[in-house]
Write a structure and sequence with these properties.
Radius of gyration: 15 Å
Helix content: 25-40%
Order of helices and strands: HEHEEHEHEEEHE
Largest sheet: 8 strands, mixed
Number of strands: 8
Length: about 170
Amino acid sequence: MENALPEPELREKALAERLSSLGIAAKTHAHDPVFTVAEAQALRGALPGGHTKNLFLKDKKGGLWLVVAREELRIDLGALSKALGAPRFSFGSAELLMAMLGVPPGSVTPFAIINDAENAVRVVLDEGMLAFDPLNFHPLRNDRTTAISPGDLLKFLRASGHEPVVLRLPETAA
């Protein structure tokens, strides 16, 4: 099913053009593909800035959410759904992710919001993540990491028609 998506190089090129058109400075680093936070931690070396994880969620009534947080944050999804006034969350399927955000599993990123032309996905940002500069995300493929400033992340999301919800995400007990 991933064959229905544009090639990674084309996805990344479209993103680079969009960032450039918005005047957003970005620096991209190539690396082996990573699918988990642990794999990313093992490969990144001394890459500066905040490192993140991205959760594509579906609520019980079919609402779609992209939660972007510091990689080490253990998010309490039940408490988060209550904080957002959303019905219970579950993870969105790979097929739904590809249909809505145009990326395969392992490549989820706030940059994928450019593929949500219908504004069907609500974006939630971890308030604590925004203290890091730069912030690191996949550029629509999981064998690269692109660094941008927190202000530019907000600029990008808003220019893509998505006003993010910024909040202190509830954590699970350790």
